[in-house]
């Protein structure tokens, strides 16, 4: 894969920073690695990461094509909520990654699905994400729908695009609320400095809307339900943090050292999922029980 950039006539800046601003999917550390490997040329010459771009510089970036992972079926137990010939609803446990990626080549939900469903998964998202219509984070638990054929996948993907799918999450967050309900309407995009994070981004973000409802309040925490109108990466985590109520255990968007010990990742559970079934054309809704760690944490807060 090749990229070609021409530096505009503006104040000079480091080449790694400029490339990152133009091609955000390439992190600055990765760009620096490309420069070190002589895969970035300025006016057909090698450069260093601290090179300051000059007006009309011609920048050529050579990026190796990502290697296709060999996804192997694995006999991993699945918590199946519902299954028929077109869809399968599963309850994902904490720590499980949805699909393979560098550093997570095995033990994923897709590895388990390939073993359980054999060849009965939609092919729209390729071999890495067969059947996967939507995802939840590694440390988020809860309900997901997977499609067994391309027809079901297309219809559910269209419902996601139209924001007509019901998605309700339960979470525990810091602080208490004055009002029992509220809405956060703020666009989400890549963080301008830390490209691994998302942030409220009014310039380059995409529309994001989260409705929340307080279910129970404690001295310093609240148990809430969040309903997604859109589905951006880390949406609930970013939105709740933006109004001063980061999720308990979320060390990316909240405090690094929570007072409650033993937490591993954010306390967020995908509880309810509803959509028009691709075969019957009727609305169906599925619900999953709160995981044990979440129930025990609520009991602890109530005491």
Would you kindly provide a brief summary of this structure?
19% of the residues lie in helices and 27% in strands. The chain has helices at residues 15-22, 28-36, 109-117, 150-161, 235-242, 292-302; strands at residues 2-6, 40-42, 45-46, 58-62, 80-83, 87-92, 141-147, 166-174, 181-185, 188-190, 198-200, 209-217, 221-228, 268-276, 283-287.
Which ranges are low-confidence, i.e. pLDDT below 50, for 5 or more consecutive residues?
none
Tell me the span between the first and last alpha carbons: 57 Å
CATH class assignment of the largest domain:
Alpha Beta
Largest sheet: 9 strands, mixed
**CATH-assigned homologous superfamily of the largest domain:** Pseudouridine synthase
Q: Give the DSSP E fraction (strand runs of 2 or more residues).
A: 25-35%
- What's the gyration radius in Å? 22 Å
Overall shape: it is globular
Number of strands: 15
Can you write the helix and strand succession as a string? EHHEEEEEHEHEEEEEEHEEH
CATH topology of the largest domain: Pseudouridine synthase
Share of helix among residues?
10-25%
Structural class: alpha+beta
- Determine the mean pLDDT: 90
Number of helices: 6
| Overall domain count | 3
Walkthrough of the structure:
The longest helix has 12 residues, at 150-161. The N and C termini lie far apart (57 Å). This protein folds into three domains: 2-62, Structural Genomics Hypothetical 15.5 Kd Protein In mrcA-pckA Intergenic Region, Chain A, CATH 3.10.290.10; 66-160, Pseudouridine synthase (2-Layer Sandwich); 163-303, Pseudouridine synthase, CATH 3.30.2350. The chain is globular, with a radius of gyration of 22 Å. Strands 5, 6, 7, 8, 9, 12, 13, 14 and 15 form a nine-stranded mixed sheet that branches. By secondary structure, the protein is of the alpha+beta class. It is built from six helices and 15 strands. Strand 2 and strand 3 form a beta hairpin. The protein has helices at 15-22, 28-36, 109-117, 150-161, 235-242, 292-302, and strands at residues 2-6, 40-42, 45-46, 58-62, 80-83, 87-92, 141-147, 166-174, 181-185, 188-190, 198-200, 209-217, 221-228, 268-276, 283-287. The mean pLDDT is 90.
């Amino acid at each position: 894969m090749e990229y070609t950039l021409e530096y505009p006539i503006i104040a000079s800046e480091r080449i790694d920073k400029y490339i990152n601003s133009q091609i955000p999917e390439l992190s600055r550390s990765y760009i620096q690695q490309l420069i070190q490997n002589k895969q970035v040329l300025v006016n057909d010459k090698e450069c260093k990461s601290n090179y300051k771009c000059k007006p009309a510089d011609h920048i050529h970036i050579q990026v190796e094509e990502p290697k296709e992972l060999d996804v192997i079926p694995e006999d991993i137990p699945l918590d199946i909520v519902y299954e028929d010939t077109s869809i399968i609803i599963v309850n994902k446990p904490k720590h499980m990654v949805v699909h393979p990626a560098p550093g997570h080549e095995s033990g994923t939900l897709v590895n388990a699905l390939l073993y359980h469903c054999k060849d009965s998964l939609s092919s729209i998202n390729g071999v890495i994400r067969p059947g996967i219509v939507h995802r939840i984070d590694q440390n988020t638990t809860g309900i997901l729908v997977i499609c067994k054929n391309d027809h079901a996948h297309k219809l559910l993907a269209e419902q996601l695009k139209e924001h007509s799918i019901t998605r309700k999450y339960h979470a525990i967050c810091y602080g208490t609320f004055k009002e029992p309900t509220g809405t956060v309407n703020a666009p989400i995009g890549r963080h301008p400095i830390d490209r691994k994070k998302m942030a409220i981004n009014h310039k380059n973000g995409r529309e994001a809307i989260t409705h929340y409802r307080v279910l129970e309040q404690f001295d310093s925490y609240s148990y809430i339900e969040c309903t997604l109108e859109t589905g951006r990466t880390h949406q609930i985590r970013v939105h709740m943090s933006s109004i001063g109520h980061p999720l308990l255990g979320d060390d990316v968007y909240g405090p690094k050292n929570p007072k409650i010990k033993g937490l591993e990742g954010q306390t967020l559970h995908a509880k309810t999922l509803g959509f028009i079934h691709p075969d019957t054309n009727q609305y169906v809704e599925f619900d999953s029980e709160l995981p044990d760690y979440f129930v025990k944490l609520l009991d602890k807060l109530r005491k």
